[in-house]
């Protein structure tokens, strides 16, 4: 539940640097649970948000 709330907050702000880092940390913690489809979905949503807020090079 908290992961989804953090995703919503990151989507609503244009400055998701801090949230992006925290969500990236959360993704690392999710690795052992990726067999669960709900966790995989959360992981993919985090990836989308973090990728969208990453600085383009």
Provide a short characterization of the protein structure.
This protein has 57 residues and is mainly alpha-helical. It contains 3 helices and no strands. The radius of gyration is 11 Å and the shape is globular.
Sheet having the most strands: none
Q: End-to-end distance, in Å?
A: 33 Å
Q: Multimeric state of these chains? A: single chain
What gyration radius follows from the Cα positions, in whole Å?
11 Å
Shape estimate: globular
Structural category: mainly alpha
Report the count of strand segments: 0
What's the number of helices? 3
**β content, as a range?**
under 5%
What is the N-to-C succession of helices and strands? HHH
What is the helix content?
Answer: over 70%
Low-confidence stretches: none
For the record, the count of structural domains works out to 1
Mean pLDDT: 80
């Amino acid at each position: 539940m908290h992961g989804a709330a953090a995703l919503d907050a990151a989507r609503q702000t244009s400055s998701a640097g801090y949230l992006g880092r925290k969500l990236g940390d959360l993704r690392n913690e999710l690795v052992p649970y990726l067999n669960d489809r709900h966790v995989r979905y959360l992981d993919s949503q985090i990836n989308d948000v973090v990728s969208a807020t990453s600085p383009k090079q």
